[in-house]
Amino acid sequence: MTDRLGGRACLVTGSTGIGEAVAIALVEEGASVFVASRTADHARSLASRLAPRAHAGARIGWAAADLTDDVAADEAVNATIAELGRIDGLFSVAGGSGRPFGDGPVDVLTADAFDRTIALNLRSHVLVASAVARRMLAQPPAADGRRGSIVLVSSVLATHPVADLFATHAYAAAKGGILALATAMAAQYARAGIRVNVLAPGLTGTAMAARAAADPASAAFAARKQPLVGGLLDPADVAPAAVFLLSDEARAITGQVIAVDGGWSVTAAGAEGEARR
Asked: By 3-state DSSP, what share of the chain in percent is helix, strand and coil, each rounded to 5?
């Protein structure tokens, strides 16, 4: 355990997969952490596992919240500040697959499937980031002018699609929207001492990726396309980049995207071409 985030108060949205791994890493680096998740049992369970890892004086809290609702998102940020005293960092990863709503290629995508996928994967980020930015702007800055760091999670699929295996166009639009949102926010708030950056993970071994992990073509594709890990990323592979962006080590970095993708964005699918169903 080190203390790179000692004294910092961070909100993590999402309580499984990447959110869980990042929350653990933040606590182990000395941060106080508040977890907001749609599923109360998941959030409560993660908080109970974070508490024994916390540094002396660090606090842990949690809340169940539907972050696609503006009132609920605002209340989650209020609860964070009530529990931790302030907010210095946001790691926003809550979201999920749009396939259950009917997400797919745009020629068969319904308006309802699009709206529900966008709400889950973009609207939620916008609402939480909005509430956090307001609180950070209201907080007095540190001696160096720092007010906080916001990290939003996009996806490698926003910029490096694979039509044959991952033709979920509403999800891609949501993840592309996160890139644009972060760029605009970074420009807006740089002079106020608020940094905004993006992590773009590759295919990661989370509950959302269970379908891909169980599909031989997708698993074989990941093994070729993510050669640094030889398959799906582990959520813990993403956590160090999140810690870095939320720490003072990244104090001069804003408006940037870090692809934690095992080589996906720079690696060909293989001599036989992209995997097909």
From this structure: 50, 15, 35
Give me the DSSP letters along 129-142: HHHHHHHHHHSPPP
Where do the domains of the chain lie? 9-209+233-266
Output the six-digit token pair for 7: 């004294």
* Three-class secondary structure of residue 201 per DSSP: strand
The packing angle between helices 124-138 and 70-84, to 10°, is 40
pLDDT in tens, 131-149: 999 999 999 998 889 999 9
Residue 198 CA to residue 256 CA, distance in Å, equals 6
Over residues 98-121, mean pLDDT: 97
Q: How large is the angle between the packed helices 169-189 and 124-138, nearest 10 degrees?
A: 10
Q: Sheet holding 257-260: strands in order across?
A: 60-64, 32-37, 9-13, 89-92, 148-153, 194-201, 257-260
- Residue 189 is a catalytic residue: no
Strand partners for 62: 35
* Topology at the third CATH level for domain 9-209+233-266: Rossmann fold (3.40.50)
Query: Cα–Cα distance between 234 and 127 in angstroms, integer?
Result: 28
**Closest of 85, 80, 200 to residue 151, by C-alpha:** 200
| Res 164 pLDDT > 80 | yes
Q: Which runs of E-coded beta strand occur in 124-266? A: 148-153, 194-201, 257-260
Catalytic residue among 171, 189, 221, 264: 171
pTM: 0.94
In this structure, what token pair is assigned to residue 271? 């001599």
Residue recorded with tokens 């001492």? 193
